Amino acid sequence: MSYLDQITSPTLLISESITRANIKRMADKAKRNGKKLTPHWKTAQSHEIGNWAKEYGIREVTASSIKMAEYLCGQGWDAVHIAFPFNPLETPELNQLAESESLSVQLVNLATTQKLVDGLTNKVGFFIEIDAGYGRTGVHVSDFGLIEDILRTAAKSEKLQFRGFYLHPGHTYYMPDKAEVYEQSRQALHMLKMKYQSEFPNLVTRVGDTPGCAVIEDFGDVDELGPGNFVFFDLMQAELGSCAKEDISVCLAVPVVDISKDRKEILIHGGGVHLAKDVLVDTDGNKNFGEVVFLSENGWTIPADRSYLKSISQEHGVIKASDSLLASVKVGDLLGILPIHSCMTADCMGAYLSLDGKWIDHCEG
Question: How much is the average pLDDT of 89-113?
Answer without folding.
Answer: 98
